[in-house]
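Student: I would love a firmer grasp of how sequence relates to backbone shape in proteins. Thank you; the sequence and its tokens follow:
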Amino acid sequence: MLAILLICGKILPAMANIRAHQKEKTRRTIVDAAFRLLSQQRSYSSLSLREVSRDAGIAPTSFYRHFEDMEELGLSMVDEGGVMLRQLMRKARQRIQDRGSVINTSVETFMEFIHNSPHVFHLLLRERSGTSLAFRKAVSRELQYFVVELADYIQHTQSYPAEAAKIQAEAMVVLVFNAGAEALDCKPAERKLLTEKVIIQLRFIARGAHVFLKGKR
């Protein structure tokens, strides 16, 4: 009996781990399927549960084992898209140490993200002004995360007051986000020109903030 209990003590946790892994794998498949279906012509609101399930290779009833409804799936995708971009921008800080310009490297990294993951940015862009209040709040929250992180960076590198750093960060995030929307429709040469223009605009903001705050001291 003791031997049986010991064996069960090993097998049952292993089986639970396998089920948990399989559940997470299926959940990942659903998210990836929804992202694949997004495009310049397809908004998230136009996707159906059956369509996403079919692309993911599961039965529609299986969908509900992972998400309550399409809104929960969409909100999860918004969160994931924001995390992906924030992680990428954090990695850019290491590149900044190696290459110098914080503005150049940040904008180039952001444009790389737009080019490599347009479906993710399509979701963030469209749901920013979509009909769902929950989606609008989720995207707004993601943007605020960027503002907070950038404001913290500005405050510590430029020694600006917290409120001034936040105002500058908000202006920069809005500018870059809007440029990202424009970049979705750009050809490579056009995106390069847009990147250069955004870098100049951000430098104007940074320089203007420096002069303004210096005059107040």
